[in-house]
């Protein structure tokens, strides 16, 4: 019989929000489910309820045949009886224990030899050789994160919960550890639920994405699908889609629809179910910018645009364009330099039809 984590509960805060969660999480394979959403939407509250650190006001949490929480009958299994691993945002390492001591802390009821074997194997897996006797204060942020992850995994939990585990690290460390984290979870064969508001982290680590907003889970699906095809304009904005514009449907042809956006027309895939109006969602990565009209012949939408703003974002630059409606483009800093782009100049913005997602207006 398959085993899954099933939950349907609410947490109510006095003079505050109501946090709702209802989903099922298969736990037979080492998949990673991402709970994604903006800060303050309730992600950490959901995670703490699953871990047993908070008590829901209504509903239930069940793992297979086990009842972890039944609010109606006041059943509440404590964290230590749920056989979970939990990686906190601030790592929560014991400052008085060494790396080896922190890793060994959850290992109770087993022989000294087995404890030593597991600690040694975890140190090797996490590339912590030579650091066994150091205290947390003597470690870098990335090393502390590895120790926190190892401590959560070493007792072989049935499910790993992670609350923004990489948010305290610098960007190079984040990128390196993201790649390693996925490999470690696969090698250990442990399913995980990861809380994050970082899009890159969600796309790199997630097999499934639960999109949370306004205290509830609003969309569930493959990460790439959710990020490119949100169900509502509000979710599109929560996902960081820079351009969300109301459009009017003009005509349909060969699986495409022609729409009026501001003073220009666009071609986009026909999702079906459209009425007279829709919202067009365009990610900045789907917009190319050139000085002249050339390049990919499949680009269906070529728009003359004025650069009204430029925001440097590390290796990328976010361009704010006026092309008859407000359009955002996300291009590399090198492309901006090569094209010598400046505010106030006119460029060609090219948007493939397939980069436009239409949401019906009900």
Strand content: 35-45%
CATH topology of the largest domain: Rossmann fold
Extract low-pLDDT stretches.
Answer: none
Instruction: State the strand order across the main sheet.
Output: 7-8-9-3-10-11
Describe the overall structure.
The chain is built from 9 helices and 21 strands. The strands form 4 sheets. Strands 7-8-9-3-10-11 form a 6-stranded mixed β-sheet, with helices on both faces. Helix content is 24%, strand content 37%. It has 2 domains: 225 residues, P-loop containing nucleotide triphosphate hydrolases (Rossmann fold, 3-Layer(aba) Sandwich); 120 residues, OB fold (Dihydrolipoamide Acetyltransferase, E2P), CATH 2.40.50. A hairpin with a 5-residue loop joins strand 1 and strand 2. By secondary structure, it is an alpha+beta fold. The protein is globular, with a radius of gyration of 24 Å.
Secondary structure elements and their pairing?
Elements: E1 4-12, E2 18-26, E3 32-36, H1 43-51, E4 58-63, E5 66-70, E6 75-76, E7 84-87, H2 99-104, H3 112-125, H4 141-153, E8 159-163, H5 171-188, E9 192-196, H6 199-205, E10 208-213, E11 216-221, H7 223-228, H8 233-238, E12 243-253, E13 256-261, E14 264-269, E15 277-282, E16 287-290, E17 301-313, E18 316-322, E19 326-332, H9 333-339, E20 346-351, E21 356-360
Parallel strand pairs: 3-9, 3-10, 7-8, 8-9
Antiparallel strand pairs: 1-2, 1-4, 4-5, 5-6, 10-11, 12-13, 12-15, 13-14, 15-21, 16-20, 17-18, 17-20, 18-19
């Amino acid at each position: 019989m398959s085993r899954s984590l099933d939950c349907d509960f609410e947490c109510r805060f006095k003079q505050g929000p109501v946090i709702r969660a209802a989903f099922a999480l298969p736990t037979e394979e080492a998949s990673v489910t991402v709970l994604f959403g903006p800060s303050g939407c309730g992600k950490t509250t959901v995670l703490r309820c699953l871990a047993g650190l908070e008590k829901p006001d209504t509903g239930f949490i069940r793992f297979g045949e086990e009842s972890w929480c039944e609010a109606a009958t006041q059943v509440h299994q404590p964290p230590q009886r749920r056989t979970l691993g939990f990686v906190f945002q601030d790592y929560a390492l014991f400052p008085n224990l060494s790396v080896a001591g922190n890793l060994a802390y959850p290992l109770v009821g087993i022989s000294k030899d087995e404890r030593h074997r597991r600690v040694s194997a975890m140190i090797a897996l996490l590339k912590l050789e030579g650091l066994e006797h150091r205290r947390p204060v003597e470690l870098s942020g990335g090393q502390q994160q590895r120790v926190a992850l190892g401590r959560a995994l070493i007792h072989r939990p049935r499910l790993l919960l992670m609350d923004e585990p990489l948010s305290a690290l610098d960007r190079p460390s984040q990128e390196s550890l993201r790649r390693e984290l996925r490999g470690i979870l696969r090698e250990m064969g442990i399913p995980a639920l990861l809380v994050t508001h970082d899009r890159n982290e969600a796309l790199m680590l997630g097999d499934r994405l639960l999109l949370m907003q306004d205290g509830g889970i609003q969309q569930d699906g493959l990460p790439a699908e959710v990020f490119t095809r949100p169900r509502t304009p509000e979710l599109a904005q929560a996902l960081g889609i820079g351009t969300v514009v109301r459009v009017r449907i003009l005509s349909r042809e060969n699986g495409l629809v022609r729409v009026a956006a501001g003073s220009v027309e666009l071609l986009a895939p026909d999702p079906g179910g459209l009425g007279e109006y829709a919202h067009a969602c365009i990610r900045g990565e789907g917009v190319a910018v050139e000085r002249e009209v050339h390049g990919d012949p499949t680009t269906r939408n070529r728009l003359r645009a004025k650069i009204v703003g430029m925001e440097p974002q590390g290796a990328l630059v976010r361009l704010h364009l006026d092309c008859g409606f407000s359009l955002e483009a996300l291009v590399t800093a090198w492309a901006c330099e090569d094209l010598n782009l400046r505010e106030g100049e006119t460029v060609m913005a090219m948007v493939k039809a397939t980069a436009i997602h239409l949401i019906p207006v009900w």
